[in-house]
Amino acid sequence: MKRLSDISTIKEILSKHGFTFSKSLGQNFLINPSVCPRMAEYAGAGAGVGVIEIGPGIGVLTNELCQLAYKVVAVELDKRLLPVLDETLAEYDNVKIVNADVLELDLNQLIEEEFAGMEVVVCANLPYYITSPVIMKLLEERLPVKAITVMVQKEAAQRICAKVGVRMCGAVTVAVNYYAEPELLFHVSAGSFMPAPKVDSAVIRLNVREKPPVDADKEKFFAVVKASFGQRRKVIANSLSAGLGMGKEKVLAILERAGVPQNTRAEALRLEDFAAIANAWEDLA
User: Fold this and answer.
1) Does 3 have pLDDT greater than 80?
2) Per-chain mean pLDDT for the chain
3) Fewer CB atoms near the end CB (10 Å): N or C, the chain?
4) Residue 219 pLDDT more than 90?
5) 91 and 159 in contact (C-beta within 8 Å)?
6) Confidence of residue 25 (pLDDT cuts 50, 70, 90)
7) SS (H, E, C) 8-63
8) How many Å apart are CA 146 and CA 224, to the nearest integer?
């Protein structure tokens, strides 16, 4: 197979199959030859390892994963890319393409059927518009995967990998840290793609935790997080009262029991603080 990071090669293949880019699907194909090998290595693809790839595009990253992993299952929504992938991945017998929407796919069942007995990791160049939904699906379903290595918009990467309790922290930061330990690996310029997006990207790795780092009722914990950041400019007492539909007096009692000052803002709270509020809420119910 010719180099899939070569622009003329990509154009030739896409033209041959009558493919045009879809803005609605956020299609930007990697053309920087140094990025995918690094992603595949950081993802942990190797002997005996199964990899789930989301949105393979024309198979640039898929090629690198197939060279390292025991098996790769790539989930592609756009059926127009299936014949393209048949051509670009023809030399590999350890890859399977699944034409489906990853947000609707039963990934636990897929892992059970395709990767029995294997260590499993996820590796993907995610379209910007579905970054958070895909990441949260991968984490919330408690899949038996070791790590999730994805390329996302640079700003999203910085927010996801921010420390809980700093200004950049948001609800997604807290949610990701509940399920995994995130790390920002490296940045990728907009010029590394065809067509080039308007913003730079970054590759992050989420090392999935065996269990949450805090002890609290999960439903209440995430209700507190959602309410806290729902009106993040307000102090925690007001945002919780509005977000939980709870009287101010009860909210103040909960915060006092949790040891959280009522004039604190959500971005300043640690995981332990959100857990303490959730537990105090349960105690005073």
Assistant:
1) no
2) 93
3) C
4) yes
5) no
6) low
7) HHHHHHHHHCCCCCCCCCCCCEECCCCHHHHHHHHHCCCCCEEEEEECCCCCHHHH
8) 28
